[in-house]
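User: Hello, can you help with two protein structures?

Assistant: Certainly.
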Amino acid sequence: MIGFIGLGVMGAGMARNIAASGLKLAVTTSSPEKAETFRALGAEICSSPADLAARCRVIVTCVPDANALGNVIEGETGLAAQSWEGGLLIDCSTIAPFEAQDMAQRLATVGGRFVDAPVSGGAKGADSGTLTIMCGGSEDDVADADPVLQAMGKNIHHVGPLGAGQALKACNQLMVAVNMMGAFEAVALARAAGVDPKVMREVLSTGAARSGVLEAHALRYIEGQLDGGFRSELMRKDLGIANAVGAHFNISQPATDLAHQLMIATCNSGFAKRDSAALGLLYDRLNGRNEDTSQ
């Protein structure tokens, strides 16, 4: 039986795909509504992470940050509350590489193993089971995790030792954010020159400027579809991680720092709970355009 903790925007779709793959699923959640939803899918409902660990040898977590993951592992009702010899935690949260290594050490005290496996592909990828998953850990642990990873994703990559998956996720997030900066500056320029942003996007998507951000994030902004999806406050957190990782290795990354500051400003402008493409709304304000077509 596979356990799952973290039934949010991403996790719910991932857990559904585990159940749909034929693997038996158990979940723990503080939400009665989510419990009923997954009970209807055939999942067992557990009272706590400790209860889940007592029933499952493999558990997937997808929680907002390292503090949340620490709470899952520690405490009287945490995964590490009792012996979990040989158990495997597949963590799909986005945290810093050194935080993943610390969590692995905590879990090892009760015999547990750890694979950091952050994901990319958004809620759409989580729902459709087409996520890209970047794994850090030992060859044996990643191999043991593979049947579950295959249920959640389409592109599964073992990229190195423990923490390597999180390092690659930091690379992914900084590239997405910097690409968003370029896309929204281009939208502003096109609009100022009298060119329809939809036309700009369609044309540039056929040339060298094409990107996943131009395809998806820019479209959500242009069409005003900014509710749901990957929240700005989570992108702010992820860019903070990317900055911290860069500082740890003493590398210069001015674009990452600027992207982080702009995402902080996006959140401070009232868009923290909206899709990260709400960065485009911040650019609107910077350019004296205050129309929000998504409301």
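That covers the first. Now for the second protein you mentioned:
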Amino acid sequence: MHRLVSIDGSIVAPEEAKVSVYDRGFLYGDSVFETIRTYRGVPFALTEHMERLERSATRVAIPMPISKEAMADEVKRAVTAAANPESYIRAMLTRGAGPLGLDPSLAQQPLRVIFIEPLAPLPAAMYRDGVSVVTVRTERAADAASGAKVGNYLASLLALRVAKEAGAHEALIVGADGTVVEGTTSNVFAVRDGVVLTPPDEAGILPGITRAHLLHAAADIELPVRFERLTPAELAASSEVFLSSSIREVLPVVRVDSAQIAAGRPGPVTRALHAAFRRRIGLAGDPMPWEG
């Protein structure tokens, strides 16, 4: 099991990974990033992740220092060098270093950093029994650049702290209109009358790569999907709730705040959609996460 870091294409051990204290990613959270996982050692949906990284960079006016294809190659080289059975990847682009000051033009050259860690899957019990979440009303730095995956996660970090203090797995962000937007590191779905519901892009979500594949998987099994804003009360009244993200895949939710979801156990639509997702990405014969 190996951890390593690639800085502007140079692969080093974590203890040798150094960037300037004047880097704007460090000073101001002035950066964008992607979280990726491997399946059978291959980065999943790498092209899609690099396309979203480029879109995020464009939205916050950070120029891509190399092409998205070249950055994808750097990710693959780093994963190969780590030689983990499965890897967790964070590909990051900062505006770069420069004199102190908020003016973006002070940055000299964007910096790219790729972190590789051994993938640590969630415990099987979380998939078998489901998890609890809490709703937290807050505003995030990403709300100023809708659709960009920005490095300033302070609001989400504090929301997750609230969740952990409550013994919950995740915090669901409630926006200014009083509806649930997404989790701190996940997209959210509900099931009502056999229809899968998820907030629309215009609600201010970061449209997840796994979320997009789940929507295709739902079509594969002729499962109806509707994009709809949901209040915390409406979410809690659903027959099923689940989260999606690159690392979680599909994670059942059995409690929202103090409300139990239906019978308090993962539901059949959640299970069917998770299985369809795994078939779609070529893992039909592998054990499901709750069978681990």
